[in-house]
Amino acid sequence: MMHTNTNLTLEEIRVQEKIKSEPARVKTDIEEGYCEVNVENLNFFYGAVQALFNVTIKVQKKGVAALIGPSGCGKSTFLRVLNRMNDLIPGTRLEGKVSIHGEDIYAPNTDVVSLRKKVGMVFQHPNPFPKSIFDNIAYGPRIDGLKDKAALSEIVEKSLKGAALWDEVKDRLNAPALALSGGQQQRLCIARALAVEPRILLMDEPTSAIDPIATQRIEDLIRDLCADYTIIIVTHNMQQAARISDYTCFFLQGEMIEWGKTSILFTNPEDQRTEDYITGRFG
Amino acid sequence: MITDVFKRGFVIEKKRSEWRSYELIGLWALRLTLVLVLFILGVIVFDIVSKGAGVINWEFLTQPPRTGMTEGGIFPAIVGTFYVTLITIAFAVPLGVGAAIYLNEYAVQGKFTRLVRMSVRNLAGVPSIVFGLFGMAVFVKLFGFGPSLIAAGFTLGLLTLPVTVTASEEALRTVPRAYREGSFALGATRWQVVRTVVLPRAIPGILTGTILGLARAAGETAPILATGAAFFLPHLPDSIRSQFMALPYHLFIMSTQHHAISQVRPIAYGTALVLLSLVCLLNLAAVLLRKRYRNRIAKGL
């Protein structure tokens, strides 16, 4: 349906049909206890427009999973399915099953608020609140009802250390967060997400608005954090995916094309389209 | 605002080399319109100040009218306007801001919200005398408030609601989506998002819009005419059920209804000047508030 308008050889059509019928190299070797995110036959719609087609993925606990693909391929949509941020957009609809730690997060009795506390998110553009550094980090615990100043200070310090920002800001916690540099702001946003003690961190192109040196610091940080958190990162930058991820998933036009160990996917992709994309023939 | 206009004029002048001669004619025509507007404004202000300033003294501001309202001051009218404005605030601000928050943050955007918005905006165009009539029918008669501070305050509140709702909604809409998303992503409930991220950022806009609405309400005569303003009262209002004297209504009487109009003309001008100053003061407060919050936002706090 998506490719019928192009002139394909019979062989190519046969390959495509095969790929569609078995949603591709799903990592079935993840044992039940090690599976963090389990998505089965996910279809996602913005009104009448379908954005994701029959996506099936299992993400392992800990480590970094990268989602790559050209603009508009649905990778950000997929990411926002995992913490139900798409709920905020009117007219969206979802089919299929999405579970985190074995719990269906789209079940009718799901508490979205506590889901989002478990599944943190870092956005493309750093979005610290127009408050002080301290108040930004303390935001999550505070809305959770924590008032004790000492406990909050402890969380702030721990989170900033976790995001490798503490040494740079410890003397000016009351300074406005917006006075920090772009890279520092993004690490602040990571610290803010860490302060709610999530298990999964979703990152939507976290370094696309940031200079190369700050990008490297954030990449180093992601490698450090993945020992404790499951990180799912959307990136436009294939080198970045190759550098920091353990698993990579290639999306194209709303379909999950290929999914596997980063080392294998980048050196020996199974699908021609993956190869074309990672070798820079399009995208 | 006026300095803005001049600044822009200055910029135009700097780029004059780019202008063709026929465009210069247009430029001068536009400039002339500006001068005319300023001139008219100047004449009005000058007329009121020059004729009103003479009667204003401590006694005029602190004493009630005497001897058939041909002497004395306008103190009860100042107090009445102050009270009725307070009631207007108490009525219009919670209602207007609440409605704006609901419309902008909670309601599913669609035909219905569009219809509501359109109606609210059209309400702003309803003549104030119609509000007065409605206030008399509903607050004075139906609710049984009688002609009183509360009936007039509520009527003025209705009059300012469109401004309050529209200004609040606009202020809410300027809060960047990134703040909302950031808050939601940390597990905030919708109300927590509104309270901790959206409102702090929107309050300056809400405040200034509300104050401007109040400034208009404070100077209205028609809505209070039939809902509680009195020609003359020997004592100050002692409850929200009392009738009251008000500056705009006092001015109306002094300039059209009094038995010795030419004799009390200075008092009318004095009243006009006090009313004008009051409205200017409110507008000034709005400007200062906006400036203060803008500085705070620029500092990122």
Describe what is shown at a glance.
Chain A has 283 residues and is α/β, with parallel strands linked by helices.
Please tell me the total number of domains of chain B: 2
CATH class of chain A: Alpha Beta
Structural class of chain A: alpha/beta
Mean pLDDT of chain B comes to 88
Give the C-alpha Rg of chain B.
23 Å
Mean pLDDT of chain A: 87
* SS element count, helices of chain A: 11
Give the CATH class of the largest domain in chain B: Mainly Alpha
Largest interface, counted by CB within 8 Å of the partner chain's CB: A-B, 32 and 24 residues
Structure description:
The complex is a heterodimer of chains A (283) and B (301). Chain A is an alpha/beta fold. Chain A has one domain: Rossmann fold, CATH 3.40.50. Helix content of chain A is 36%, strand content 24%. In chain A, strand 1 and strand 2 (49-60) form a beta hairpin. In chain A, helix 4 runs parallel beside helix 7 (182-194) and helix 7 runs parallel beside helix 8 (212-225). The longest helix of chain A has 14 residues, at 149-162. Chain B is mostly helical and 301 residues long. Chain B has two domains: 2-49; 60-299, MetI-like (MetI-like fold), CATH 1.10.3720.10. Chain B has helices at residues 2-14, 21-52, 58-62, 75-106, 111-123, 128-142, 149-173, 177-185, 190-218, 222-225, 247-257, 261-299, and strands spanning 65-66, 71-72. Chain B has a two-stranded antiparallel ribbon with strand order 1-2. In chain B, strand 1 and strand 2 (71-72) form a beta hairpin. In chain B, helix 2 packs across helix 12 (261-299) and helix 4 (75-106) packs antiparallel against helix 9 (190-218). Chain B is globular and about 70 Å long. The A-B interface holds A 83, 85, 88, 90, 113-117, 120-121, 123, 125, 127-132, 139-140, 142-144, 176-179, 189, 192-193, 196 and B 108-109, 176, 178-189, 192, 196-197, 200-201, 297, 299-301.
